[in-house]
């Protein structure tokens, strides 16, 4: 849609109301200079518009079907979304412009075989006065992994475009821009709908751990969207190139968009955008974003957005305020809700682990807390049965004995806890750690295998599996003493549970501030005192990934 909703018609100088002008702009060719209004990129959802639609390098969810189909290839969970937009609210003629978007994306084999997506994007003016519908069928996947680092994702979208208009007084009484002629308009009284096929392609390249380069080319076949068979109105080729710096909780993006203007020149828009998430343990994540954009033809726009998300649901709000060509409007408002299906992504689980560590989920006022191997699993209950209290007591005493280096006592306590609840992953973890401290690698591995079998969290199961591999490898190499302290055990610093928790908090702070070397030292200190601390092990593994090792 052309950004000027109230413009001069041809060379007459007469101003047209937004409703009449928009219909005239979309359907007629009366202006002195050709006008382009059909199937303008108005964005999709609320997150992308909150970032000024600078999403070519950021796209990583169901909306990638619109912004860059290659971004579908990074998805591992299915998503369904619904969104609504009120465009340019507060226009003086009370015209109502809005968009609706519905989409579903389904990764195949958790994204290993790519992701398919289908979507419907609908624009309407005053209900049915004018309407544009776009059906999407998209696919994206990982196409190439460069040795030494770098991933290339490719994607494509096949689109079915349809546009239609309702009934106008001008159908039987055409206007020449100044007066009504009393004759039927040959276009408005003719075909009132048009359909065409369209296609987009995209690429997304990840490199140097945090950087992403994105490219989207829209309207590849340049479909002709003119209502009259005697006219030509091909959609212009639209190219977007973006760069994104992506961390665990933020995006910093820049994007350049170019397309052919109605007068044959090239229109361009430059957008700078930022997004930041503020995770809150047990309360979900809160996000803020914003963007500023400027371009040719006096295009200027300010965008902001807010989000709230849990593992299953995300709600987004976006607001855009034009600062240049469009006057007399209070801006555009967008709302979207997205549902996530399947298990959490590695990024979500890592973020959750960090926040649980930061918040210190140990004790809430007036709430009984049952800690199952406090560094591994935490759950909160308002009341505990007598058996649950006895189990919690044995687990706490076993962990205290491990911390103090009393491994034999810890084995006895952990064994008693496992007898009480054979399905307690925490009991088997304590037992495995205690056996390791005694140098009994076979029994330690057997206990950790039990812990692995009873653990429910996919992320912790993966961490336990890596730990088991380390124990087996060290046992084979005769270097187990390096893991459990060996001859230096007596010199090893024995830390209390609160000291370990404080160290983990410091390590997470350093991690968030990207002081990776210092964070590694902190987590290694935790493991020196508590070799079975799975969260510290997982944090070290994440640090290795961040450093590209």
Q: How many beta-strand segments?
A: 16
Strand content: 25-35%
Radius of gyration: 30 Å
Termini distance? 48 Å
Supply the number of helical segments.
Answer: 13
- The global form is elongated
For the residues shown, what is the average pLDDT? 78
Structural class: alpha+beta
Please bin the fraction of helical residues.
25-40%
The secondary-structure element order is HHHEEEEEEEEEEEEEEHEEHHHHHHHHH
User: Which runs of at least 5 residues are low in confidence (pLDDT < 50)?
Assistant: 1-35, 357-382, 479-492
- What can be said about the biggest beta sheet? 14 strands, antiparallel, barrel
Q: Strand order of the main beta sheet, please?
A: 1-2-3-4-5-6-7-8-9-10-11-12-13-14
Notable traits:
disordered N terminus; two-stranded antiparallel sheet; alpha+beta
């Amino acid at each position: 849609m052309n950004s000027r909703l109230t413009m001069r018609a041809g060379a007459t100088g007469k101003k047209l109301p937004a409703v009449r002008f928009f219909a005239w702009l979309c359907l007629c060719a009366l202006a002195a200079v050709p006008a382009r209004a059909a199937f303008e990129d108005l964005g999709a959802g609320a997150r992308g518009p909150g970032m000024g639609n600078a999403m070519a390098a950021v796209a990583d969810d169901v909306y990638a079907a619109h912004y860059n189909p290659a971004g579908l290839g990074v998805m591992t969970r299915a998503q369904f979304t619904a969104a609504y937009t009120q465009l340019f609210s507060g226009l003086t003629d009370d015209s109502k412009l809005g968009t609706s978007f519905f989409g579903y994306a389904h990764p195949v084999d958790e994204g290993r075989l790519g992701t398919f997506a289908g979507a419907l994007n609908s624009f309407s003016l005053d209900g049915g006065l004018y309407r544009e519908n776009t059906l999407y069928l998209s696919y994206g996947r990982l196409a190439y992994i460069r040795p030494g680092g770098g991933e290339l994702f490719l994607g494509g979208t096949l689109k079915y475009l349809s546009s239609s208009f309702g009934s106008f007084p001008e159908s039987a009484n055409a206007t020449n821009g100044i007066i009504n002629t009393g004759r039927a308009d040959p276009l408005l009284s003719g075909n009132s709908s048009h359909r065409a096929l369209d296609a987009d392609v995209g690429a997304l390249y990840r490199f140097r751990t945090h950087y992403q380069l994105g490219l989207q080319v829209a309207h590849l076949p340049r479909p002709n969207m003119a209502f009259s068979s005697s006219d030509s109105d091909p959609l212009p080729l639209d190219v977007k190139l973006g760069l994104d710096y992506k961390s665990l909780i933020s995006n910093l993006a820049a994007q350049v968009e170019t397309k052919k203007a109605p007068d044959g020149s090239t229109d361009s828009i430059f957008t700078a955008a930022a997004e930041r998430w503020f995770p809150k343990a047990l309360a979900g994540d809160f996000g803020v974003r914003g963007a500023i954009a400027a371009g040719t033809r006096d295009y200027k726009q300010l965008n902001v957005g807010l989000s709230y998300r849990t593992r299953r649901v995300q709600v987004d709000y976006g607001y855009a305020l034009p600062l240049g060509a469009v006057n007399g409007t209070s801006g555009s408002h967008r709302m979207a809700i997205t549902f996530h299906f399947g298990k959490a992504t590695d990024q979500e689980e890592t973020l959750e682990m960090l926040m649980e560590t930061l918040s210190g989920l140990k004790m809430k006022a007036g709430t009984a807390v049952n800690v199952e191997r406090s560094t591994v699993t935490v759950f909160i209950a308002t009341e505990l049965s007598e058996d649950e209290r006895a189990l919690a007591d044995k687990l706490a005493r076993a962990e205290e004995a491990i911390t103090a280096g009393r491994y034999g006592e810890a084995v006895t306590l952990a064994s008693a806890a496992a007898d009480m609840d054979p399905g307690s992953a925490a009991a088997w973890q304590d037992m495995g750690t205690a056996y390791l401290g005694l140098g009994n690698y076979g029994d330690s591995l057997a206990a950790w295998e039990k812990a692995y079998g009873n653990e429910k969290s996919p992320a912790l199961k993966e961490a336990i599996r890596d730990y088991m591999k380390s124990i087996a490898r060290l046992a084979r190499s005769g270097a187990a003493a390096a893991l459990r302290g060996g001859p230096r055990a007596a010199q090893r610093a024995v830390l209390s549970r609160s000291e370990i928790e404080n160290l983990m908090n410091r390590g997470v702070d350093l991690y968030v501030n990207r002081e990776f070397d210092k964070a590694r030292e902190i987590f290694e200190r935790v493991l020196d005192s508590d070799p079975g601390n799975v969260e510290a092990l997982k944090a070290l593994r994440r640090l290795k990934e961040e450093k590209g090792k």
